[in-house]
Design goal:
single chain, about 750 residues, 27 helices
């Protein structure tokens, strides 16, 4: 392990950026197994935080294989599916915990089980509850695995003492609150009159001392709120009103005392529970500021006063409601990692896309180590700039104009053809599973799925990839586009993360990011200059990078390039303008690789030579005979000849056919029999009855070769392909001549008849 548990005076805390695919999670698991066997933790539990529950289950099984007792921990609202009950939750009476949270009561003692004065109150579902069933394994576990979000809530007492907290992958997003813009406090609810500041003791008696202190603090705050312009609360105005960090922190504690104890207990009738809750909350329509939110507001103000900056996490604004415009305070803040989960002790954070700006707000004293990287000699990367891969380009909103819908339809066909051609070159190269993995935005991926993917290809969307290892043996990957939030989005996230107003200078375009020069690192040591987006604020830029470039790095890493060998190379196509920390072997413009209509036709498994038939069989590509006749017939760029020669499919066959009707002549077409196993049926469906149909055959072309290492080998491979093509053409001509000879022989008069 990299942590020194004898470090003094503070516990060791290390953040380690480790490249995707290096096996950081496996190494962590083995290291923890050794650490537990060594006794260095003195019987304390290790907590491992992961992004999602499915990854937690994978880790539990991996620890079990190492002989480590591991347990999962899920929250009450997490799914707990069972046979016949796919929507089952961990808590079987979820309304009870939600009611308890609404009035800030402890869920366990008000909804699950409690003993008072020798009398036990218990939920009717207590012994069938998935949440409670976790507790016995938790007491025995050496390692407890849970989702990142859980680490920002209180841990169950059954967890015991924690000796080490491991944060696997980025966790910062799970700690942000109010970033959806819905955490609002109306100014009417903050107005300092008795009905809004009355505090109570634990025995539901008026607490006049706390009420007086809170009223005085609210009076000072009101002087600012009543006159301040829209925007973050001004630090100068808050100080002028007489507020101090200590006043604000005391007020935060008093806010929680505004709620009386409604006397909830486990097993209470839901109707009675709601009646008691209604008795301690204000009547509908009365001014009210939820205590939890007002407490968070005061802590944001205290932090700003201590650090001398405006309160970016508390912004005055006008909110439109069904009752008109309401002056409100919009909150966004950063929750803290709970010490009960081990956040106060030794911490190890592992993340492939780690940005210190996003980690230090949660763990200020953490040490960020140098990144761990590795070369990928058996990965070839091709980047295509200017490709129309956004969700808007491929799947516009249904309300978009007809011309946009039509353009998107053609782009989808082009992209589907590219995927089909790529999948064909990779056919059979993966050891198991699919040969090609396509990654893009969800709307774009769904639209491409609707057109139909090749049998050996799979498509997934961004934001559902981190930690997954199921695509480690794919032969190729195609990454379409990027995920890029608007500047206002990352600024709101930055405000929640730091409580500081972010810099908003964006260059010449006020509503978008500034443009800066980016350089694509080429595998031969050179660079390719391009441009990209950048935010002026360091924290906002770190957030933009994590959401955009970071997600692309995670996507590319699913192919596990560092584990590839000469026998299992990986081909990656980046159809994005984003510059990534990877070596690129070839940079191309979209115009160089954009599929022609003939490419789209070939990707469907058919190559027709007759223009009239092309227009009848593919009216979406050629609306008329003249349009098909005027269109070029060849594959239009060298990229496709390298990627896939559409005339040399390994299962292709030439057919001769003639539609019924006067004046029709014989014509030829080529079919990929894997995609179109019945060429005659395909033709008759589109052209009607055929007067003639004949399969002329065609020798199989060589399977696509793996990339070769030097020019001499490439030349030899090219020569071999030429020889194979010549032999194939000769075989086709021989077959045609033999067929013609047979027809002529059959047409000769019989000597006996003469």
């Amino acid at each position: 392990m990299l942590l020194d548990f004898n470090a003094a005076p503070r516990p060791p805390r290390l953040a380690l950026p480790v490249a995707v695919g290096l096996g950081k999670t496996t190494a962590m698991q083995r290291g923890l197994a050794g650490l537990l066997r060594s006794g260095a933790l003195r019987g304390k539990t290790v907590v491992v935080g992961v992004p999602r529950h499915d990854l937690a289950a994978e880790q539990r099984d991996a620890f079990a294989a190492l002989g480590v007792e591991a347990a999962l921990w899920k929250g009450r609202s997490a799914p707990d599916p069972r046979p016949g009950e796919p929507d089952r939750l961990m808590c079987l009476d979820p309304s009870a915990p939600f009611d308890a949270i609404e009035v800030e009561r402890v869920v366990e003692t008000t909804s699950c089980k409690v003993t008072r004065d020798g009398v036990t109150k218990i939920c009717a579902f207590y012994h069938q509850c998935g949440y409670q069933a976790q507790k016995p394994p938790l007491r025995r576990a050496e390692v407890v695995i849970t989702a990142h979000d859980t680490l920002f809530h209180m841990a169950p007492k059954e967890l015991g003492a924690v000796g080490l907290l491991v944060l696997d992958e980025g966790f910062w997003a799970a700690g942000l609150r109010g970033t959806d813009g819905k955490a609002l406090l109306t100014l009417d609810g903050l107005r300092p009159h008795l009905g809004t500041v009355l505090c109570w003791t634990a025995r539901n008696k008026e607490n006049w001392e706390a009420t007086a202190d809170l009223h005085a603090a609210r009076e000072k705050l009101w002087k600012v709120l009543a006159t301040a312009p829209s925007g973050p609360l001004s630090i100068a105005a808050l100080r002028a009103a007489g507020l101090t960090p200590q006043i604000c922190r005391d007020a935060s504690g008093h806010e929680h005392r505004r709620l009386r104890n409604p006397g909830l207990y486990p097993g209470m009738d839901p109707a009675e529970r709601r009646r008691r809750i209604a008795a301690v909350l204000p009547k509908e329509g009365e001014p009210w500021a939820p205590p939890g939110r007002t407490a968070a507001m005061w802590m944001l103000i205290a932090e700003a006063l201590e650090n001398d900056h405006d309160v970016a996490g508390a912004v005055l604004c006008d909110v439109t409601t069904e009752n008109g415009t309401v002056r409100s305070l919009r909150l966004a803040w950063r929750a803290g990692l709970r010490k009960s989960w081990g956040a106060g002790g030794p911490v190890l954070h592992l993340d492939a896309t780690l940005r210190p700006e996003l980690v230090t707000p949660f763990l200020p004293d953490i040490t960020v180590a140098e990144p761990v990287r590795a070369t990928e000699p058996h990965v070839r990367v091709r980047q295509v700039l200017g490709a129309p891969t956004s969700a808007k380009a491929l799947a516009p909103d249904p309300s978009a104009p007809a011309r946009d819908q039509s353009a998107a339809q053609l782009r989808r066909r082009e992209m589907a053809a590219l995927i089909a051609l790529r999948a064909r070159t990779l056919h059979g190269r993966a050891r198991s599973g699919k040969d090609l993995l396509v990654i893009g935005q969800k709307a774009a991926v769904d639209a491409l799925r609707a057109l139909g993917l090749p049998a050996n290809a799979e498509a997934v969307h961004f934001n559902a990839l981190s930690g997954l290892d199921r695509w480690r043996e794919v032969a190729g990957m195609m990454v379409l586009g990027r995920t890029l939030p608007a500047p206002l989005t990352v600024e709101r996230l930055a405000a929640a993360l730091t409580n500081r107003p972010p810099l908003t200078s964006r260059g010449d375009v006020a509503w978008w990011y500034g443009r800066v020069e980016r350089r694509i690192a080429l595998a031969d040591g050179g660079v390719h200059a391009t441009t990209g987006e950048e935010h002026a604020d360091p924290t906002a830029e770190a957030l933009r990078w994590a959401i955009c470039e970071g997600e692309l790095v995670q996507a590319v890493g699913r192919g596990r390039g560092v584990n590839r060998t000469p026998e299992t190379p990986l081909e990656i196509d980046l159809l994005t303008d984003v510059v990534l920390p990877v070596a690129v072997h070839e940079v191309l413009a979209w115009e160089e690789v954009q599929p022609s209509r003939h490419d789209i036709m070939a990707a469907a498994g058919v190559e027709l030579e007759n223009a009239a038939d092309m227009a009848r069989c593919f009216p979406e590509l050629w609306p008329s005979h003249d349009a098909a006749r005027q269109d070029g017939r060849s594959v239009r760029n060298c990229y496709y000849r390298d990627l896939h020669n559409s005339r040399s499919s390994h299962s292709s066959s030439v057919v001769s056919y003639r539609p019924a009707g006067p004046g029709q002549k014989d014509r030829q077409a080529r079919f990929d029999l894997e995609l179109v196993p019945d060429p005659r049926g395909w033709l008759e469906t589109r052209l009607g009855a055929l007067a003639h149909f004949e399969m002329l055959g065609g020798e199989p072309s060589p399977a696509p070769a793996h990339p070769v290492a030097d020019a001499r080998a490439r030349l030899a491979a090219f020569s071999a392909r030429l020889d194979a093509a010549i032999h194939q053409r000769l075989a086709i001509d021989r077959a045609r001549l033999a067929a013609l000879s047979a027809r002529l022989e059959a047409a000769k008069p019989h000597p006996a008849a003469a």
